[in-house]
Amino acid sequence: MFGKFHSAIIFAGIIAVAAMAGCGKKADSSSQPANPDAVPIRIAFWGAVEEKEIITKTVTDWEKNNPNVKIVLEHIPSGSYTDKVLTEIAGGNPPDIIFCEVNIFVTFFYKDALLDLAPFLAEDKNFDIKDFFPEVVGRFSRDGKILCIPRDTAPFACIYYNKNIFDKFNMPYPKDDWDMNQFLAVSKKLTFDENGKHPDEEGFNEKKIKNYGFWGWTWQNFVYSYGGRVVDDVNKPTKCLLGEQAAIDGVQMFVDLSYKHFVSPKPDSLTNMGMNINQLFTMEKLAMFQSGIWETPNLRKIIGNKFAWDVAMFPKGPGGKRGFGTGGSGYAILKTCKYPKEAWEVVKCLAGSTGQEMLADTGLAQPANRKIAEGKFWAASPKAPLNKKMLNQAVQYVLYDPFHPLWREASDKYIGQQMDLIIHNNIPVKDGLEKIASKINAILEKK
Amino acid sequence: MTLHQMKIISDIINKTLIYLILSLFGLSMIFPFLWMLSTSLKDPTLIFTSSINLWPSPIIWRNYLEAWNAIPFGRFYVNSTIVAIAVTAGQVVTSSMAAYAFSRLRFPGRDKIFFAYLATMMIPGMVTLIPVFILLKTLNWLDTYKALILPGIFSAYGTFMLRQFFMTLPADLEDAAKIDGCSLWRIYWQIILPLSKPALATLGTFTFLGNWQSFFWPLIVTSSEKMKTLPIGLSYFQDIYTTNWTLLMAASVIVLAPALLIFILNQRFITQGIALTGLKG
Amino acid sequence: MKNKLSALFNSETFIGYCFILPNFIGFLLFISLPVLASFVLSFVSWDIFNPPQFVGLKNFLDLFGFHMRPGAAFGSIFDYILVWRYIVPNDFEFWYYLYNTTFFMLGIPLGMIGSLLMAIIMNRPLRGITFFRTIYFLPSISSIVAIALLWRWIYNPDYGLLNTLLAYMGIQGPAWLNHPVWARISLIIMGLWSGIGGYNMLLYLAALQGIPQHLYEASEIDGANAWQKFIHITVPMLSPTTFFIFVMSVIGGFQGGFQSAYLMTRGGPGGATTTIEYYIYNNAFVWFYMGKASALAWFLFVIIFAVTLFNWKFGGKKVQYQYM
Question: pTM of the prediction?
Fold first, then answer.
């Protein structure tokens, strides 16, 4: 009646039923004896392995000294963070504390989802918002409210460079106050083809380039260095300025690096995934690349002791101007939180020194807390890259994405793809930028 | 040279040609896997070198230990296994039952209901995500095995696939049994199912593998570390900015191993061969 | 009375319903309810944080809105015939991505033929054939990151495998992933490669095992050669499987294309490899237009339904079943 085959199915079915009936209890992440009066606070956080450990440790240590709060940690991989949090909010199961990235913050602000933390800050004598970089705090403040406690900031101002290659060509290392012309000259010297010829030299074969001088993904920095802007006022944008001459010059320089000066490889795609770029850099086929400080832990691992490397600040424009796009994140409490007072205490723990110092040490993120950023775990840290302290100066030049409810959509739809075409040299820079500007202006006027 | 000898030679040439083509093309097939293995055993500084070097030297077995300890692998393994087995069993049973009805029984509305099943596969899953989530929350199944298993047991894909297969079985199969007074259930259980082993094994494999690798659904319905599955664990090694290559590849190999095993098992099921001889005589 | 009940319980109708019952409960609970909910959602505007607002058919009508191309005007009657030269859809992205999605589906027939051929080869009782089957199945379970790495190297315009090979033959290879049309073709090729030893091949393999040997033996007695055996026995006997694979590939093809495109080209250049799936995702989870996302999904559903119905009626006739 029952063959082996049939038995297998029945056995599997029994496992299934047992699993669902018996082991279906909700999991309990705290190992402490349950305090029935403990207030539950749920933190939705992201972070790869090391970051996760640091946050978990910080929080569980704090919990031991604060038995009136029971913390539930919910880890979400950063790539799907917003998807999951949104689903939970839509489904009526929202977390209490979230990590808010600086651009997603704008959307949350306009949906009125975040709790104003200014009253807590006013009362609390132990926590001083002035400890943080004012630019970052400024981003998270609006109409007198402060909606996020800054966590980290990530100006796109890092030019990573390979010291060995510079040594080989007897070039001095880049200085933080260098400008575009010097930068271009250096890049050309460090680019060579299979016969060792540099661009601008007789006999240079642009189809057989062996080593590149530079690669970068942030066209915004170039626009800012040439004195251009994306919009007229980041906080109250009314006009898109990408069609102006300064912006055009900036983007033109960016495109020329690949197609006119041949110091940059042709772009594979508009991405900072860095898979190809890290490869090229560690294979010593790329002398410099622009990115943010988050590349550090990975670079430390895959470069090891192969060669010495460091960072320099992104070059100024020919007119001496500079500006950087930036990333970053902060801690926010959702308005749906039932216990705001306790949530505030948890936020203070997360933003407190111990956790932030450990994070700074991994090199992954520049702390938004000035004191720690200038302290021994960051600025004075002996770990590569040594010059990361220049980022503390860089923060004053950061320019965020415009503060507008439709910016995300406009940027995804119009800027992203048009820029792709511009960068692949499929359309002229001026035409592409003017098209972007007109589309964005149409959206800015709608509001 | 006799005809027989010529046939043998042409056979050998035939076979060699096939082996040759298969091997050449097969090199590209196995390459990503070899890269995974090789990277998982390398020192991080040796991953990206000028020449593609598949042989790791020195071989760092420690990567596997590190990867295993970095995330609650044991727990994730248990969860993934339980869920995959349960969903596979459930799907094979419910799909084969439904497929049997849709293919060999007659009842009013049969084809219309079947097409409705099919139609449900035509809605992109993304927009039903939030309604299903709300449903699961209302039932209080969030973060439990129920949420991971039960929604997966129903499968239009499996039903459709088995229906097609059942329809290829000869009509006279059941006639003999009916004459003997077999109930429809017994026909299903003792005749149709055993004859469909390759199809059932294939569906089982597909379901198991699909479930084993499923990332987004478990991500959405689980929150606590105790309930998460292996693909979610893998994503821990990859941040939006950084990728821990050696550990990620080591972890990927650990996750891939059972999938490979299931596939090999499936092969044994299939190659047992089922020539439907002897039915007519 | 007892006899009537017994007759009822034993009737084919009742038993038929019983057999589909377990499946049907799942269908009702986990599929129909959410699907109905998403249908309702397509008539509202909902940004997740605020309560939904009814907007009627707006989400759907917006898809069909259009405006005049800047600088164009209808002059003569002929202009109305060549209307697409003068108007631009309002929701340009939607139609462009729909076009991309359909373009990607061109690979389906090729993939099916490839899988069939592979299954025939893999069905031979050669020694070590299981080893080969496993190898060819590896891309279906290998890490997609590793696969993307391999193919990015193959497609690299400067030092990749393809362009190096082409250079030996004196041909200047295209910029593959950087070119709007070649990028799509590149992804199609990559999809064919990973699928050739994968699920579809397994299906064909299982189906091949079910073809009775005596059919081939009988034909050999009649003097049939390999090609004739293939055309007159193998293909018809496999038609139910072929039909299944085709219908499922079309349904899946309309709804997919996100993951590999994202890893290889981030959807570029200029959106050339972005599919509808990504657009729906963006609308729902990035721009917070849940209502519009549902409308998009349902519009896509109508298209898929129509195409599948066509396949069913047209292709269904060609399928040969043993039973019915």
Answer: 0.87
